[in-house]
Amino acid sequence: RRHVVILGYGHVGKAVARVLEGRGFPWVAADADYAMVRAATTGGAPLVFGDAGTPSVRDARRVADAGTMVVTVPDALAARQAIEYALRSNPNLHVVVRAHSAQDEAELRRLGAARIVTAEREIGHELVRHALRRYGVSDQEIAAILRRGD
Question: Cα–Cα distance between 82 and 57 in angstroms, integer?
Fold first, then answer.
């Protein structure tokens, strides 16, 4: 109960699962790569095979009992479908999702995602942090700069 649902068990999804597992948080994931899911489940990983947007896959992950859902799938339509269904069955679910564009981000926000990560923006922010730290700018000032969008 109160587990984390991970949609997409590629590099990002596996990294999320590894950290959760290391901290003792329960999780279940879904992915559409049959060979990978089969290999992972043979190794004991709690995975479900199928597309993130498919109702049977959504139900198998027990979304209604989850506390958080992390959506890493590259398919924007499947991500939106999964979020819509998940929040209908669990309005208190905290949804963290990757976006591929500002337009994507706006739609995911409208659907109720709590945290949206746009790869290009996050990469840009990390590069700015690194560059400014080299010039002695404090983390607090960097955070303020990034919030303002300077």
Answer: 10
